Amino acid sequence: MRLNYFLVLSVFFFTSCTDYNNISVIEVIDGDTIRLSNNKVLRYIGIDTPESRIKEGSEFIYDPQPFSVQAAQKNKDLVLGKKIRVEFDLVKTDKYGRLLGYCFYDGMMVNEELLKNGLAVLMTIPPNIKYTDRFIKAQTDARNQGRGLWAENEIVSDAQASDYIDQVRTVRGRVIRTFKSDKCIYLNFGADYRTDFTIVIFKKSLRSFIDKKIDPENYYMNKMVEVTGRIKQYNGPEIIVGHPSQITVLSY
User: Fold this and answer.
1) Which CATH number do you get for residue 89?
2) Annotated catalytic residue, options 35, 53, 85, 98
3) In this model, does residue 238 exceed pLDDT 90?
């Protein structure tokens, strides 16, 4: 109870000491991250843009992925040096201490605008899901119109996924096995989860599947699918999925 009391107090002071309804942007770090005039870093909720730097050991090396430069430039054009409004969701900071929010300028939501232009992909992390339906529509429109990264988003096979670590890609393959742990549901594309491509769905994201009447453990089994997101390396290559819109079931 005492911990909850101090948590409430900290949230109160966090939101009351700065006017996030009218704050300046002093730096654009990349396509989905900016620095505000109070020196706080704001990470846009609900989207992920291609990276311009990759981590090698303890250092970050400049190695821009396709459309990372365009995403950063679009972000600069929209907000750099301007007064914005930041709207928060249920979780206001991430594990790195960055603010998490929706960025508005002149009535436009920048998160959504980047998706509309095909310079970002959906990245839903519950419980910050307030505008997920809007984001899905924006991404669907961009994909259907072939805007931005969707114009050149080469689909790779699950066997090729390890060649694109830390890149935003669409991976195609067949789910041959599923497994449910205490924390996740795993959709495996090969016989060895330690080396083969996997889709990971954390339990906190299951509500979005249940709402669509999808039981991932059974629904995707033996189906050919395409999944879009950032490919990470854990055991083998994987994409963490927060919403069923990231997975398309193919007709073959």
Assistant:
1) 2.40.50.90
2) 98
3) yes
